[in-house]
Amino acid sequence: MSFRTTRPVDYVEDVSPGRGTLPPRAWYASSDAHSLSLNGSWRLRLSATADAADDSFAAEGYDAGGWAEVTVPGHWVLQGDGAFGSPTYTNHLYPFPVDPPRVPTENPTGDHLRLFDLPDDWPALDDGGAVLRFDGVESCARVWLNGTELGEFKGSRLPHEFAVGPLLRPAGNVLAVRVHQWSAGSYLEDQDQWWLPGIFRDVTLLHRPTGAAGDFFVHASYDHTTGEGTLRVDSDVEGRVSVPALDIDVATGEPVTVAVEPWSAETPKLYDGELVTAGERVPLRIGFRTVELADGLIKVNGEALLFKGVNRHEWHPEKGRALDLETMRADVLLMKRHNLNAVRTSHYPPHPAFLDLCDEYGLWVIDECDLETHGFTEQGWRDNPVDDDRWTPALLDRAARMVERDKNHPSIVFWSLGNEAGTGRGLTAMAEWIHGRDPERLVHYEGDWNCRDTDVYSRMYAFHDEVERIGQHLDGGTRKRRELPFIQCEYAHAMGNGPGGLADYQRLFEKYDRLQGAFVWEWIDHGIKHPELGYAYGGDFGEELHDGNFVCDGLVFPDRTPSPGLVEYKKVIEPVRIEGDGADGTVRVTNKYDFADLSALAFEWSYQVDGETVEAGALSVPALAPGQSADVKLPAPPADAAGGSEAQWTVRALLAADTAWAPKGHVVAWGQVPVSARQPVPVTASERPAADERVITLGPASFDARSGALRTIGGVEVTAPRLDVWRAPTDNDDGAEWQSDTRWGMLWRKYGLHRMRHRLDAVELSDDALTVRTRVAPAAREVGLATVYRWTSDGTRLRLTVSVTPEGDWKVPLPRLGIRLGLAQADAVTWFGGGPGEAYPDTRSASMLGRWQAGVDELQTPYVRPQENGARADVRWAELGGLRIEGDPEFWFSARRWTSEQVDAARHLSDLTPGDTVWVHLDHGQQGIGSQSCGPGPLPQYFLNAEPAEFSFVFSTL
To answer: Across residues 868-873, what is the average pLDDT?
Structure first.
């Protein structure tokens, strides 16, 4: 005989969204109604399974004195120094057996307790009611207040409210919340991030006076043909709406049309208003704009948009997804200061305060539903919840909670159904409901390639050539799709060093109207601060299933320091184009904004000779309208500028006054115009090499007589320079296992480029040169590089000319081509070339030609997983360690306190121990970077093909 009893935790595996919660409604930060934050210190008891403990803890008088304490908002696995378990990271694999809606018996469950008193000024308990609001709990919560069960809910990144008025008492209130890490809802939340259970957003008690505002919908459209806006506020509770600056005072539900300044991401004009009901006054911030699909384009206020966006997960290296307002503000300010104009809230609605900031500072928003079922791809999408009618109520609940919470934000132009959830009837139901509830915005979903349910053709990581075909309307597909605009909701995977190819994408976006921009993946590296490792990633907590550092793929590091990728992106998408060839003494300035003219910017010029500014001044540029260009006359070059030197103009566009997001003088855009070219470095081969049994001398240098290896230059000890082709592969070099194109990093190892052998063939002395002939090749392969080092000197300077001839059938490009040498003493570096940050062939737009200084340690880029980094482009000369090194032609320069092999072997920055030698790379070429960690590799024009090359360096002492 067998039987199954109904367990008290069956709700955990119920596909329904929950029970007991109030209908979703619009969120607002404050009103004149009382509220009480329940954030702070809570008691926690952690159990290994969902049913390990009964619910007696929710009863009045329960003694939780022996329980641990945790902070709410927070995740318990990020508190307690490991006492409460560890975080787990997977990209798309579910970290439990896939058997929907069932979850493992091992289901960490946190019982939370919070005792609270009502403030002295809290209204009388018979005056209206009260609502208990949870803004985010992962992944399933059951709630009690004063011993009475309120209900349970799923939908981790969505708000849930309970009516609690009759249960409140002036003092001694007991709030009990049981949180389960795994639930049926977990199948809908497979979103390429750390799995982090807990009450991670605010918990708030809200007084609801008699006659308080209920749900309300602010409709604020703009007619660009008349300059008028129409306001109508629909409200569940009757009231009045006032906007003093517009002299508006109307009843709810009544439309009014007046002349207004429109809202856009570039000019985020908000009008302060107020919704007044019999019991509550709710502040409103109203932005007038109209979103439409017209002429096959996404338009706002009659203008087509070009998204220069980023995907943003919520992340803090110590608090996980528990973000405070200042952290959110820091994100928005960084985005604005780096010329971003849009954000996709991947892959869930953010904390609602973030959207207030987007309204205030100006960012277009794709608000994405808390939905992803990516792990079902492992079984060909079989049993995918979005194509199973049993799950449709949960999907509709998630859509409604997103739309109703966020509908009053002018920054939102798209509702997104979710991410990587396949296709199915549930998604269609969501789209139909959203279109019906809010026809004033558009609907997005990348997985709908036929655009059955969506208003835009959206893709992720489409290669450059395909994007161009789409721009030319040559991509095929359904008729509806062919008539829709195109965006890349994810592109340019910013994992490690990269992404490369941004400028090539941007040229396509600006060339074809149908291509309306893209969103870089992603904003921030999800590294977890770790006492030994610096920042931890997948696998660092002993997870049996993980995806390594794929969680560290952002434009900012975990501490929100901008990466070189963000600096590059800022330059690529800058809203003012400044270009010219210097031939006629003018620069062409183009306004790339969609809405704003250039009146908010001031322009300045500077004139550099050999990288140093000799004169500067203001430049008069007209307040060009969007899309307009003007040729602007530069002043005459300084009269005393050194003849025969390399000279250039640099023109910058700066904020003319303080703004909400950056101070006066902040650089928005810049361009450089050459005037005169650099002259070759002359070194007459006038010195004759001299040799004895041990040493060869040539000018200021000494060499080993047997090997021809350089030992010293003018008393500066040098570890022998020799050809180097290896770099510690970047995440984008290695690529992703699912990529269809060639993964160069893997092939470089296969061909042995990380273990090249150097064979000495000859050491030859002539009247004016020391010549060393070698062959550089990997073991087990027939390919090689015949390499000749030719040393000459004029008595004070030493010139090295390197000639490289490939031998055999080279089937792969080289990682790098140049020489590596070691210096015993080196710290400060001065160079004339590209800077101030790193650059590679397809990430060099932001490399500004000038004279720069940095310490060796400052030249490093601290990618969470160590890899090739720190190269400076177009270097004319560099000075360090007592030497001046000049290149012919210009070269790539880097210097570090460890070898490429040591960087390659390291998994974290803490694995790198500085040595006594500074290793200097003088590279003739570098392979491009690309974004093949989840996108295309470098374009062919950025390949460093194995072909004959010759390059020179001139060494002298300082």
So the answer is: 98
Distance CA 819, CA 723 (A): 4
Separation CA 116–CA 199 (nearest Å): 17
pLDDT at 6: 45
Judge whether 420 counts as a catalytic residue. Answer: yes
pTM of this structure: 0.97
pLDDT at position 195 is 98
Cα 725 to Cα 756: distance, rounded to the nearest angstrom: 8
Confidence grade of residue 7 (pLDDT, cut at 50, 70, 90): low
Cα torsion angle, 560, 563, 565, 567, sign: positive
Give the C-alpha separation, 905 to 749, whole Å.
13
Q: pLDDT of 569-625, one tens digit each?
A: 999 999 999 999 877 889 999 999 999 999 999 999 999 999 999 999 999 999 999
Cis peptide preceding 139, ω within 30 of 0: yes
Mean pLDDT of the chain: 96
H helices of 315-438, where? 325-337, 352-361, 392-406, 425-437
Q: Is the pLDDT of residue 5 over 60?
A: no
Whether 293 contacts 414, CB under 8 Å:
no
User: Which residues, 6 or more positions from 784, have their beta carbon under 8 angstroms from its beta carbon?
Assistant: 775, 776, 777, 806, 807, 808
Query: For the chain, what is the radius of gyration of the CA atoms?
Result: 32
Q: What is the mean pLDDT of residues 804-833?
A: 96
Q: CA 672 to CA 605: how far, in whole Å? A: 10
Interval 869-889 mean pLDDT: 97
Tens-place pLDDT, residues 900-954: 999 999 999 999 999 999 999 999 999 999 999 999 999 999 999 999 999 999 9
* DSSP state letters, 651-668: EEEEESS--SSS-TT-EE
Residue with tokens 């159990």: 47
| Torsion 318-323-325-329 (CA) sign | positive
Tell whether the torsion through CA atoms of 428, 429, 430 and 432 is positive or negative: positive
Of the candidates 138, 189, 368, 420, the residue annotated as catalytic is: 420
Element (H, E) at 465: helix 464-471
Q: How far apart are CA 77 and CA 82, in angstroms?
A: 7
- Output phi, psi for 352, to 5 deg: -60, -25
Rounded alpha-carbon distances, angstroms, from residue 668 to 342, 517, 603, 908: 16, 19, 10, 34
Q: In DSSP terms, which residues pair with 112 in a beta bridge? A: 44, 177
Phi/psi of residue 675, each to 5°?
A: -115, -55
Q: Which of 490, 646, 868, 890 is catalytic?
A: 490
Percent of the chain with pLDDT over 70: 99
What DSSP assignment string belongs to 862-927? --SS--S---EEEEEEEEETTEEEEEEEEEEEEEESS-HHHHHH-SSGGG----S-EEEEEEEEE-
Residue 572: phi, psi to the nearest 5?
Answer: -65, -40
3-state helix, strand, coil in the chain (%, to 5): 15, 40, 45
| Contacts for 126 with CB less than 8 Å, ≥ 6 apart | none
